[in-house]
């Protein structure tokens, strides 16, 4: 059973029988259905059903020669209308299932971002003609099974402008360092030493979250799991049409990257509000726009 089903309002599913009832309903009453014929004997299909405005479940599997559907796997999803980034990508097929992981580099995160690909059929349909040296629009989203709300850090206008200038300078250094610029690499090394010394000094008498405003770091052994700390820019409460459980869609700004995060109301500690911060662990997924411009 998928561990992130509870995030979209299915926290009371207790056994496989209840799950199969939901999967059968998705098959019978889909919101969307996409197919791609790989060869004469294999047709890959994605069947999706929305359970609220932004959340739902997708089933992916294959039809055989007799028209029988064979379930490969399923996953809960969050639909995002926010363009998070625009980068070159690498698409990697997972070994255990017919799912795909996408990797891209965005200097704003400071790490190589890996996320679960939502629209696999779109990728398979254009895989042979896609130009991967081009940049693709990426709409990131995430699911979480635990999170908490933190108060914001106060900034006056002067300090905000100063911080923005420092952030932009550091991003430029990272971009140059990736190109092999030795001066940029040396500058980043010195900056890291200074930052470590500053944090060590201030952490003796300050809470760490009054020093670190946002962060995005890998979490656990799964490549698409991260620990995130970001500023809330929008909050929307939704109700799962099937279970009537309440979930929060919290849109977070982390290092200038916008990403909606959905979690069950039961799993959120604190009251979300615009300007406050969200801290939690997330499973990252994304919709990549495989447009004709990249073919």
Could you characterize the architecture of this molecule?
The chain has 295 residues and is an alpha+beta fold. The protein is built from 4 helices and 15 strands. It has a 5-stranded mixed beta barrel. Strands 1-2-3-4 form a 4-stranded antiparallel β-sheet, sandwiched between helices. The chain starts with 15 loop residues before the first helix and ends in a 7-residue tail after the last strand.
Keywords for this entry:
295 residues, five-stranded mixed barrel, four-stranded antiparallel beta sheet, 4 helices
Proportion in β-strands: 35-45%
Major β-sheet annotation? 5 strands, mixed, barrel
Distance N terminus to C terminus?
Answer: 37 Å
Q: Tally the beta strands.
A: 15
Question: Numbering strands along the chain, what is their spatial order in the largest sheet?
Answer: 9-13-12-11-15
- Overall mean pLDDT score? 85
Estimated helix fraction? 10-25%
Could you state the oligomeric state of the chains shown?
Answer: single chain
What is the global morphology? Answer: globular
Low-confidence stretches: none
Helix/strand/pairing category: alpha+beta
Total of DSSP H or I helical runs spanning 4+ residues: 4
* Rounded Rg: 21 Å
Outline:
This protein has 295 residues and is of the alpha+beta class.
